Amino acid sequence: MTSAAPVSITGTGLFTPAESISNAELAASLTLSVDAWNEEHAAAIEAGELTARAHPDEAFIEKASGIASRFVMEKSGVLDPERMRPRLPLRGEDELGIQAEMAIPAIHEALAQAGRTPKDVDAVIVGCSNLQRAYPAVAIEIQHALGARGWAFDMNVACSSATFSIQNAVDALRNGSASCVVVANPEITSGHNNFELRDHHFIFGDACTALVLERTDDASATATHPRWDVVGSRLATQFSNNIRNDFGFLNDSEEGEHDPHALVFRQNGQAVFKEVCPLVVGHITGHLADLATEASDVRRFWLHQANLKMNQLIAKGVLGRVPDADEAPVILDEYANTSSAGSVIAFHKHRADLEAGDLGVICSFGAGYSVGSVVVRRA
Predict the structure, then answer these.
(1) Considering 128, 159, 277, 363, which one is annotated as catalytic?
(2) Collapsing DSSP states into helix, strand and coil, what is residue 58?
(3) What are phi and psi of 71, to 5 degrees?
(4) Is 180 tagged catalytic?
(5) Is 228-378 a domain of CATH 3.40.47.10?
(6) What pLDDT, on a 0 to 100 scale, did the predictor assign at position 50?
(7) What residues pair up with 303 in beta bridges, in sequence order?
(8) What is the DSSP-derived secondary structure letter of residue 115?
């Protein structure tokens, strides 16, 4: 959609956890876990009742995904062969929640870039793939911790939550229901990943991004970074079960227990690759065409950071050739897949060298299926 009322991104922020895990560390812990599981179930494996679990391959991980390491909120639990999941204890109701804790520093960085303070904020939108609770909204907790006014809400469109949040912010600014909107994407993907299975254990990392959006005419003269004017934004969804996460108390078994292998993240990777890539290519090319813009006019594509080959194929489908790292920068090697935060991390880290008038596309895609694209121009 486009509108006569211009809206701009005036600041971005990034929270990176203190702890990281290399592919070597991850593969070593899974190897111990696999050996223990196979030994425990040796009789059933011998009888053909179970299939032995496969060992991880450090070299394969980077070759297949482009991922070399990932940041996590808690490392020791993930690398414990007897646990294989982060230790994220439930906090007291009088303590700041972990997602709010991640969001606050990212938001303060974004506000500083925009030349704004929390008192200027009158809307907070939290978009992420996994929320720590149903209610009260994490966004309202963040609003309270910031000392912001107005309203706040949470939303979930999996890996597209950031671009869908941006669209909601743009709409709020254009219809007058807000004058300064903060979008935060606190992604704790490690809490919903199955680190015990080779096909999934290397994919995800944790991070939080934040953006400040304002009507262009209201942008502060004290901003420390150039603003990015929103040329157009577009969303699309198409139902698919090929990426799914059923984790939640409503999905317990009749016995009151749940199978974590069945409920947490899982995907049919080959089907996702085959179906999502053309879906995203068609989405971006259609969006650009409606804006009377050629793909060759786009200086940079900040794509969802899910898989290196996937990003290369999508960029090739849009441009008609394989992109170079400057045209479609990658942060997968350092951050892994941070769900909705990925494309915003790429935008946050790889935009300073663009010149006034340059166009870029922030694009996300993932479970749903969902696709969101935001075309921006450096002011």
Answers:
(1) 159
(2) helix
(3) -90, 145
(4) no
(5) yes
(6) 93
(7) 363
(8) T
